[in-house]
Amino acid sequence: MNSELGVSCRRSGRARAAVRWTLGAIFIGAGALKLVDPAGFHADLLAYGIGAPDWFFRFVAVVLPWVEAISGGLLLAELWTETVGVLVAGMCLIFVLALGQAVLRGLELKCGCFGELAAGWFERPLAALVRACVLLAASVWLLLHPPGTHSGETTPASGLPSAATNSTHNKVPCRISGTP
Amino acid sequence: MGAILPALARAVRAARFWRLVAVFLASVAAGLISDWFRTEQRLVFPRPPPVFVPMEPGR
Asked: What is the ipTM of this complex?
């Protein structure tokens, strides 16, 4: 019983680490590439056609790359994960909304996600929207799987199958006695 | 969906507000400092345009 729980915990931990590392690396890369050319990122932001003053876009172009880089670094280092996860999910949600309105309005623009490195179809709004949706799903999954829990088929107390195995209410702690 | 939303709400409540503020302030500070020390393409602290001073004749 405990060995099954241990296997489930290890699998959940590995999947969580993989998602965390992937998100962290992507956010560090995106932030660093934007930091290289903030003026280009500012021009990309203006192309979204969002009715906000220019000083706001200048501020975003200067600060957002650092938020992304710091969040990515904290994710990789597994520091403040419960807070950074919310921040990353919020940023992904904003990206989805901004790119969604651009796609709906038929705007032809560079997404600006990865600075000047992205080119061709990779920076088209639709491709960027799909990418942002995947990142949002990954960050939400990370939020729903906090460290030290798993959603296995059995509970450690009874060993009986749980009623709703996919429910996040049935998270049980990984660190119990006898569990590696 | 019915189970995800409450779990998401719990995850958001688990976030430490002051850690969010710390990440934001650190990013603002880093962004402003990097913009200040940028030699070109300044966005927040744009350099004033160069003043044209005509050279005096004979110089």
From this structure: 0.80
